[in-house]
C-alpha cells in the first residue's frame, strides 16, 4: 500500500495549528504567532512560506492538504494565490481551502448537517449540509458586527471600565482594576487600539475578554450582563443561520467557549426559546480537526465557502 500524507491546517487570529496524518500516525504542531497581515488583509505570500515550513517539518510530500483560514470568503480576493505559493515550496496534490467557519463546522459536527457557532476574536454562525445549503450569519468584523465574539466582549468590558473611571453611570470598578492591570493606563490602551490596524485592534480588544470572564466569575454584575448579552447574540446568530430544511442540530467551536456555561448558558437558552426541538451537540473537535477531515476526504467545491484545487503531486 502506498504511503498517504494528509494535513489539516487552521489559520486563525491567535496562531496556526497543524495536524498531519502520515503513515497511519497523526502528529500535531503549530505556532502561536498570529497570521501575517498586509495592507489589504492576510499576506498570502508570507503565510504560504510559514505553512510550508510547518508542513516540511512533518513530511517531504503531501497528497492532500486542507486549510481553514480566517478572512475567507470576504477578505481573500485570490484564494488560489495561497495555493500557488504553497506548491512552489512543498509538493502537494489536492488542496482544500475553506473559511475557518467551515472547518470549525466540520470539526464540531463531524461533517453532519446543522448549525455551528464559531466564536474567537470574532463571531459567525454557519448552517450547512456541506452540499446545497450554505447559510451564514454575522462574521462582519468588529466595526460592523461580530456580536458576542471576543472583541465584542472585550470592548463592552473596556467601555464599562472607562465609565467607572469617568464616574459615569453603568461602570464597573472591578473591570477598571482589570484594565489597569492589563494595559497599565488609559493612554496605553488608546495606543494599543487606535494606533493599530483593524485586525490588531480587534485582537487587543479580545485580549480583555478573559478579564471580563474573571470579573463575572467573581460576581461583578456588569461583567455578568456582558456575557449574558454575548451568549444571546450568538444564539440569535445560530437561529438566523438555521435555513429551512436544515437539520435542527447545533454545536459550537472557538476559543471564546473556553469560559463554558458563562456564554453557553445564554446561547442555549436563546436557541431553545426559538427552536425548542434543536439537538445541542458538544463539539467533537475544533477547526484543525475539521481541516484534517476535509483533507482525508475532500468534498465537492462550493465557492466562495470552500475551494478544491486538484492536481497530481508530480504535475
Q: What does this protein look like?
A:
The structure is a single chain. Helices cover 42% and strands 23% of the residues. It is an alpha/beta fold. The strands form three sheets. Strands 3-2-1-6-7-13 form a six-stranded mixed sheet.
Which value, in Å, is the CA radius of gyration?
20 Å
Percent in helix: 40-55%
- Characterize the overall form: globular
The end-to-end distance, rounded to whole angstroms, is: 21 Å
Strand content: 15-25%
The order of strands across the largest sheet is: 3-2-1-6-7-13
Give me the secondary-structure category. Answer: alpha/beta
Number of helices: 11
Order of helices and strands: EEEEEHEHEHEEEHHHHHHEHEHE
Uncertain residue segments: none
Q: Report the strand count.
A: 13
User: What is the typical, i.e. mean, pLDDT?
Assistant: 88
Q: The biggest beta sheet, please?
A: 6 strands, mixed
Q: Quick recap of the structure?
A:
With about 325 residues, the chain is α/β, with parallel strands linked by helices. It has helices at about 45-55, 80-85, 100-110, 150-165, 175-185, 185-195, 200-205, 210-215, 220-240, 260-275, 285-295; strands at about 5-10, 15-20, 25-30, 35-40, 40, 60-70, 90-100, 115-120, 125-130, 135-140, 250-255, 280, 305-310. The two termini are about 20 Å apart.
